[in-house]
Amino acid sequence: MRYIGLVILFLVMLLGNVAHAGVVTCKVKFQFGSQTLYLDSAYVTPLGDTLHITGLKFYVSSWQLHDAKGWHKVGEAHLVDIEEERSSHFNITQVPSGSYDSIRLVIGVDSLYSTNGAHPGDLDPMKGMYWAWNTGYIMAKMEGNSENEERRLDPKCWKGYHKSGTKLKDGVRVNNCVKNSS
User: Fold this and answer.
1) CA distances for 26 relative to 78, 88, 139, 150, angstroms
2) Is position 49 within any domain?
3) Is 7's pLDDT higher than 60?
4) Which of 47, 97, 100, 154 could cross-link with 65 by S-S, CB 3.0 to 4.6 Å?
5) What is the DSSP letter of 116?
């Protein structure tokens, strides 16, 4: 089994003094290694495989800011989608005033949200990041293809389905064909 390293984001936070209860601005920068990540471009992994990424979405949630008094929970779950530029620039609102020196966050959705059914906003199932068949949120989704993988497998799926990686079936690696969302 091969493991491919992919650095997908850097969070740039404007931390420091928040004079009034208010807003912290966040910006996500997509990267593959040291290169800026663009959809439908070729990227070579350290193992020499060439990847073409056609989609990338992930949740950022469970925000906490640290000051002299400790950790403070702030913000909501936010869906970042490389295809929607505005999703990579967002604000955390209702931040208590104070001087912050650290931040903690989760890539994905907190387990309490994930097992509690569907939610509104960025957690709306219509965003394509909810497993309706197994109740829970998809932490991250990267779609595309690998030139090496295409040589080994037939990349085609049935009509109305698309390839979303591979899976083992009876000890053989096969395409994971997933029904297209409407």
Assistant:
1) 11, 8, 19, 37
2) yes
3) no
4) 100
5) S
